Amino acid sequence: MSDRRSLLLLVGGAALTVYAVAFAGSYGHDVLTRAGIYAIAAIGYQLVFGRLGALSLAQGCFFGLGAYAAALTALDLGFGFPFTVIAGTALPVLLAALIAIPVLRLASHYFALATLGIAQLTLLAAINWTEVTGGANGLFGIPQISIAGLQIGFGLPLTAFVWTCVAVSLWISHRLTAGRRSLAVETLRAAPSAAAALGIDGAAIRFRFFLASAGFGGFAGALQAHAVGVVSPDVLSFHILVLLLAMTVIGGRDSPLGAVLGALLLVHLPEWFRDFADYYLVAYGAALLGAIIFLPNGLAGLLPERRTPRSEAKLPAPHPRRDAALSVEHVTKHFGGVAALDDVSISVAPGEIVGLIGPNGSGKTTLVNLISGIEKPGSGRIHFGNEDLTGRSPERIARTGIVRTFQHPQIAPGLTLGDSLEAVGPCDTEALLARVGLGERAGDLAGSLPPAAQKRLEIARALATGASLLALDEPAAGMNDIERADLAQLLKALAAEGHAILLVDHAMDFLLPLADRVVCLSAGRIVAEGTPKEIVQDPRAIRAYFGESPL
Ligand code: ADP
Ligand code: MG
Fold it and tell me: Which residues line ligand 1 (CB under 6 A)?
């Protein structure tokens, strides 16, 4: 498969080269140059919009900022090209770094609005800071690109230079996203809470990708300044962003090549539809709609499947504590006026299965959220061995060996089962999938599994991290009797291997035979605690859990 893809790309690249060298006139070269410049900015945009799924509206701003920075360093400071392009790349990266910390944590629509605000401010500055930016007229006379005294002339030389930069950008983007890292990023996009709970450092990935997107955008803008010789507030206008967005959507969200295909197509479309004059916009809109409806993976999705290379990217290895016991001491968690947890203490030792029961809304999931760091306790402490985990991030908690699964499975539907496990760590995927009863299905998409099987996939994924403590939130929900029996056997085997297991479940016939100890919550408080035998006879547990009708 991957050979067919490479062959196709080789043929495509060769055809483009032949066209550029032998057939394109000077106007054709200009168009190709423009396409290449936009391709670089779109490669950057794809990292944030495509890979992270974050609607940044600042990519046009990074592009324009790069253009201004290159123009100003060339005109005012007399810098030569390599320095102007470094300035053009660095300024947007700097801005991205400054805004990343407040902006990147925002939920998606606020992130979009915040990046839009930044783009608007930059545009206003470019228009109004006349002494520096030349205001609405912009800056003129930016010199052509020349490297070490060698001038890169307009036409074919410039086109070749820009497309060399495209190739380098593709390579960098590929390095950023290659191999197992791309699986981790896809998990982060599709199931952010799961990614955190599995130890994937989402904040670092977001930060790196956002800065890289700014770098690509700025670099492209700097090229544009030198290629056109003029910079005006137009380079900061909203339509550049829309163009980059369209290129990414039409070209393909998750392959850097998509950005290149999208840029080639969208820059050439107006040329091909020139004769249609005003109808061009209709054709453009139709192409965009058509791509969204018929090509959900964009033009790049039409290419033969790429093989995901394994074991390339180094991910931080987990350091699970095989000998540590979890102890939760007097934790409290309030949501507004509701005490979801009130002075709850619980411990789970290696090799032990502790059952957590309680009616709906009694705080079971909240306790799992506190243990996995997704929520912070209002008071109380959480230790794993002698390590204090209170207030730590989910990623760090996961890396100490505590991994939870979710009441509502959090998976990346577009990853295969095998890739879902590879995303979190190097592991024998076949063996792990077989353990949870999903052997032979490594190549299926996670999204094609029914919910009960997705829960088993979550357990396999937790094991793939090398976790020593598993906190399972209603893992048997939706399973039939045979699946439950299999799961019970698996959990027993895992405990026998030394895993500590906190098992939240409703099904008493499932949980009681498995658990060494059972803790019963009611309205956020522990009302009963003991062996399964003691619990079924405990009047407080019966009242809390079984209501008016005891067993
Ligand atoms: P369980 O898993 O036992 O069904 P939960 O832990 O989900 O219970 O919920 C315990 C209580 O805390 C419920 O009253 C629930 O409404 C409340 N709660 C849980 N999470 C939140 C939240 N993020 N915001 C507000 N209230 C919450
Ligand atoms: Mg729950």
Answer: 335, 338, 340, 358, 360-366
Q: Which tokens is 133 given?
A: 């930016």
Residue-wise pLDDT for 296-351, tens only, equals 888 888 877 665 545 444 444 444 556 789 999 999 999 988 899 999 999 999 99
In the chain, the number of structural domains is 2
Residues 163 and 56 both lie in one domain: yes
Q: Ligand 1 atom 23: the closest Cα is on which residue?
A: 335
Domain CATH code at residue 357: 3.40.50.300
| Residue 442 Cα to chain centre, angstroms | 22
518: left (phi over 0), alpha (psi -120 to 50) or beta: beta
CB proximity list for 99: less than 8 A, separation 6 or greater: 58, 114, 115, 118
Alpha carbon of 340 to ligand 2 centroid (Å): 11
Ligand 2 centroid – CA 484 distance (Å): 19
Q: Whole-model pTM? A: 0.87
The answer to whether position 19 is within a domain reads no
Point out the domain boundary residue: 206, 237, 268: 237
Q: Confirm whether 285 is domain-assigned.
A: no
Tell me the ligand closest to 364's alpha carbon: 1
Gap between the Cα atoms of 525 and 531, Å rounded: 18
Question: Domain range spanning residue 497?
Answer: 326-546
Per-residue pLDDT tens for 101-126?
888 877 778 889 999 999 999 999 99
- Interval between CA 195 and ligand 1 midpoint (Å): 21
| Final residue of a structural domain among 196, 214, 237 | 237
- Cβ of 59: how many Cβ atoms within 10 Å? 30
The tokens describing 460, both together, are: 């396999």
On whether residue 471 sits in a domain, the answer given is yes
